[in-house]
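Continuing the series of single-chain predictions for the mutant panel. This is the parent chain; the variants come on the following pages.
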Amino acid sequence: MSDQDDDPNTAYYRLDPNAVLNAIESAGLLPDGRFLALNSYENRVYQIGIEDADPVVVKFYRPGRWPDEAIQEEHSFAHELVEHEIPVVAPLAIDGKTLHSHAGFRFAIFPRRGGRWPDLDNPDNLVWLGRFMGRIHLVGGVRPFRNRPALDARSFGWEARQFLLDEGFIPSELIPAYESVCEDVLQRVESALVRITNIDPIRLHGDCHPGNILWTDDGPHFVDLDDCRTGPAVQDIWMLVSGDRQERAAQLSELLEGYSDFRDFDVRELALIEPLRALRMVHYAAWLARRWTDPAFPMAFPWFNSQRYWEDHILALREQMAALDEPPLVV
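Parent structure:
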């Protein structure tokens, strides 16, 4: 066995078109030869034509990332949402199975759903999205995840920071600045998380940025629950707002107007927006570093791991530290 077989980041070299089509056949579907690689990096995702049927989308899970139990819990959550008539794209159950395996790869098959990028400048669309988010969280609060991680400062922040320092990604002359500013940021994040008590974490989409929402004339539908986890409700909301402080407050007001039609929102969670943004910044840099041996990453993110990248990252963390000291948004 080669070193590549042992490295989850490079195992995808074996996933050529023949391997993909053979995997689909192993699940009982008959590909018609149409094959389109879709934009995905953490996993590998393809649109596959099927004989005498609609095309499907197949997601091959990155080896070594999630245990089977965590993937099954993702699938169960998606189906639970669909059962409540919430527009989430859930994996197809074929012979009662949603998680399949072939040639060492685990994969799931999804119905193809089209759509466009959501227009978040439209207040009506924000209210619409808020309603669906409230419904998702209403279901998410029914029971906890047992095999999915929680969103916390340890895993998203401190462990990510330590990985970057241990693995030598940061230029030596920038290490003192990174260590200092990142520690200050994460201490502020932890303080913010401690100050807000008695908030019940719920099951979340976990990565609800606009790219994971597809819009049609019938409204939005949500895709890619690969990062679903436990955390505060506002984690699924803050990534849908942008612009200056006044614009973000106005967008939040629209989202929460719709959200509150189905679930009460604890406005204290607004104080977590900037701490959660800070965690995402630290985690994202470590995610790129952890995947850097995957040949797809240097090609897709050529700007990463340069002197200029780390200088800009340290500057962004300093700016985020200032944002952490500002009062929370008011809606």
